[in-house]
Amino acid sequence: MKKLPVSKIQELFAAIRAQQTLYIPTDDASGQARYLPWQEGMELTHALNTVRSAKDFFFPQTENLVEFKLKGKEIEIIDSRTEQDDFVIFGVRACDARSFTILDKVFLIDPIDTYYKNRREHGTVVTLACTQPEETCFCTTFGIDPADPEGDAACWIAGDSLYLKARTEKGEKLLSALDNLLADADEGEIAAQQKATRDIAQKLPFAKLNLAGFNGENLNKLFDSKKWPELSEACLGCGTCTFVCPTCQCYDIRDFDTGHGVKRFRCWDSCMYSDFTLMAHGNSRNSQVERFRQRFMHKLVYFPANNEGEYGCVGCGRCLAKCPISMNIVKVAKALEGEVQ
Amino acid sequence: MQELMLAKAKELLQNGTVNRVLGWQAGEFVYDITPAVFESEQDLDAGFVYNEFCGNNLSKYLIKESRKEGKVLAFLKPCDTYSFNQLIKEHRIIRENVYVIGVPCEGKTDGETLKSKGVKGILGAKSEGDELIIDTLYGEQRLSKRDALTARCLTCKSKKHVVYDELLGEEGEEVPENHRFEEVEKLEAMTPDERFAFWRGELSRCIRCNACRNVCPACSCEKCVFDNPASGISQKAAADSFEENMFHIIRAFHVAGRCTDCGECSRVCPQNIPLHLLNRKFIKDIDAFYGEYQAGEDTESRAPLTNFTYDDVEPSIVYKGGKK
Ligand code: SF4
Ligand code: SF4
Ligand code: SF4
Ligand code: SF4
Fold this sequence. Notes:
- The structure holds 2 protein chains of 2 kinds.
- Chain A has helices at residues 9-17, 94-107, 114-122, 169-177, 191-203, 219-223, 228-232, 240-244, 288-306, 318-322, 329-340; strands at residues 2-5, 21-27, 33-37, 62-71, 74-79, 87-92, 123-128, 153-158, 161-166, 183-184, 251-257, 261-268.
- Chain A is of the alpha+beta class.
- Chain A has 2 domains: 2-202, no CATH class; 216-340, no CATH class.
- The two termini of chain A are 43 Å apart.
- By secondary structure, chain B is of the alpha/beta class.
- Chain B has 3 domains: 1-108 and 153-178, no CATH class; 110-148, no CATH class; 181-324, no CATH class.
- In chain B, the strands form 2 sheets. A 5-stranded mixed β-sheet of chain B has the order 2-1-3-4-8. In chain B, strands 5-6-7 form a 3-stranded antiparallel β-sheet.
- The longest helix of chain B is centred in the last third of the chain and has 15 residues, at 241-255.
- The mean pLDDT of chain B is 92.
- At the A-B interface, helix 8, strand 11, strand 12, helix 10 and helix 11 of A face strand 2, helix 5, helix 10 and helix 12 of B.
- The complex binds iron/sulfur cluster (4 copies).
- The site of one iron/sulfur cluster has 13 residues of chain A, from helix 10.
């Protein structure tokens, strides 16, 4: 483990920036925390987490895939990909770091999504341990330790020091390039902070959230629950919950008619939308009840059934904070737990 | 007030005036209230709540609810009654199927507003005089109720109900000194370039979740053009940021003269985009060009933009930047 005085954090940022693009969570002009490319003087936000999740770095909301140009009777096919430079994302929370692992399970299995893979390979994730979780946080439900985040490298801000620890080869490489700024440190120095954070995590309102029984075996029971209409009754069918979610991964592929060709792009899609998975015969889920059920069944049942029990949620709490009608995965899980436990 | 409302709801359920109740349901925290339909006294006892966190405008749900079997009781706050009237005017709600009870409102707060004031880890809240005492993971915090108000409630236009079958509590007054156009005036004072930059900055944060549209009582089209794959402009995400901006401008035009300024769009935006400013600009201009008009105030009058009078402002005013 390494450390440097927090007062030198700008020097650290500058040193990283000298090698590659650096993104940090900062307050933008409107006062919201979001990732922006670091420039001299830009400071870390005091907010616990960014409003928008970090998934854009690897899975952007819109992305051009390929272009077709018509030349007489010939079609020219142009790969729209641009060269990806190396970049560092600093200050990712433990929940969001885990979301990358979940996205990997979708995009890096056969057939590999080369657009995603390209970004993932060029990105180095530096996480930052939490010290003041919000009441909406329930990462511990998914075995995530907010005091010991994953990532290529992890860091802690405790007292006057910033502690850093490499966890992967990429992390090692980053830290060794910064070696002249860093001093050696002992793991014991962050132990007190970690304990304090874990104590708070124990006291969070959803610390005891129990997802036992949400698995493939109970698929039909949960799918057929009589509770879905009531739960989804007030749902607006907006895409807020899916778009703020770091693990929602569905996308649509669309063609943009340029007048003399086609630009094929993909964009985030939402199971809450009426034209989600629209096919020639029409839509497979015609009511909001069915669409609503899809989102929660996917996260709590289908995903774990296909991924050795891993849920499609990391407990970041964004959907809890942002749903216009305050309906969310926790309320759904609590309402349905009686069916399976 | 909650007790009064509960008693009233039970009474009307019992005597058969209505067969269900549209209201607000308590959540896991103090602030995460969900609109809900209650069908029995047990349902009501289990979750019905009315307090300073019940901000959701319930009127839009009545489009669907009023088409169901039997009469529904709807509790409406003053601002909700404007939306209700407007939807009646547009023939979207079947009036006979709704029993409206007006409930008083002293202004609302919500979790996001408390957090924007630096409150972290909210576990509970109670009101005490002029203060909100908030129990948090990190100790007790106090906020004056005024400071806790949501932005839209700070510029509330009226605490008076424009429609009801029955009223609970005391009727409020209109608030003539509501200062709701002050922010618009600030925008008007900018140069066109500054204003353009302001809006591009704000709208660039949009994630096209459509929450603003879906919550909006004026956005009640059966099928929005943006949801129609055959329209050629249907999209979930824009091809470029200009298209993103256009979505909002088109929406603002479509609700112009029909927007009651209920403030739901800005309340729900996960990216905190001040969408209400677009609509307020229209409201302000309509007031200036066609005479004072408040959408939803009544169900009969002709709306300025769908009416013609000889005093109407000349279209050329558009070319002069809206200045007479
Ligand atoms: S659950 Fe909430 S955020 Fe998600 S679509 Fe429904 S209303 Fe929108
Ligand atoms: S479902 Fe909600 S809490 Fe879970 S990861 Fe998505 S946004 Fe976060
Ligand atoms: S969910 Fe956990 S990791 Fe994420 S911000 Fe909250 S405490 Fe930190
Ligand atoms: S609610 Fe906000 S983010 Fe969502 S579409 Fe509207 S303006 Fe965009």
